[in-house]
Write a structure and sequence with these properties.
alpha/beta; Nucleotidyltransferase, domain 5; six-stranded mixed beta sheet
Length: about 180
């Protein structure tokens, strides 16, 4: 997405039916008069992973340098990137309680993607009438429905069991 003097405005959201369960992510990117919507999903994941994936996928599309206003309804994402990340990195990706950071591979990717960008991270209340947040929610939930329609129930149960056993996603589907 091309940049100009105005900041690129991004709204992101993730959804999960069951937590863990089938999940979807979505983002709406605005640059001047240009608007781009992206979304994708996975058969076995958590809501926090989908919230992170939405931000990651949106930031992957940007050229560097860029100024970004990124809006999320996830306090996990906003607090993680603005407050917790420096401490995690200083402790070699461990929490203050010395436990491994959950979703570390996604946090590392998000951290890498922020290089060369000037990002202002904003929290927005979900389901409160913000049009772009509502659109992201609708797109993410469409992805959940798409995943559920694409996989027979026994396959989803198997993928969920594998996900829970390994603590990581086993497969990834994405679309635009």
């Amino acid at each position: 997405m091309a940049t100009n003097d105005e900041p690129i405005v991004i709204h992101t959201d993730g959804a999960c039916e069951g937590n863990p369960g089938p999940g979807g992510w979505a983002a709406v990117l605005r640059s001047g008069t240009k608007v781009r919507e992206i979304s994708g999903g996975v058969p076995a994941t958590t809501n926090n992973r989908m919230e992170l994936q939405a931000a990651i996928e949106a930031l992957r599309l940007l050229r560097r340098p860029a100024t970004v206003d990124l809006y999320t309804d996830s306090t996990y994402v906003r607090s993680g990137i603005t407050e917790w990340l420096p401490g995690w990195k200083a402790r070699n990706w461990r929490t203050a309680g010395r436990k491994p950071v959950k979703n570390v591979e996604l946090w590392r990717e998000l951290d890498d993607l922020t290089a060369g960008l000037s990002i202002r991270w904003h929290w927005v209340r979900g389901h409160a009438g913000n049009p772009d947040n509502e659109r992201c929610d609708a797109l993410a939930n469409e992805e959940v429905r798409r995943i559920k329609a694409a996989y027979p129930r026994p396959a989803l149960r198997r993928l969920l069991a594998e996900f829970q056993a390994t603590g990581a996603e086993q497969s990834r589907l994405s679309g635009t």
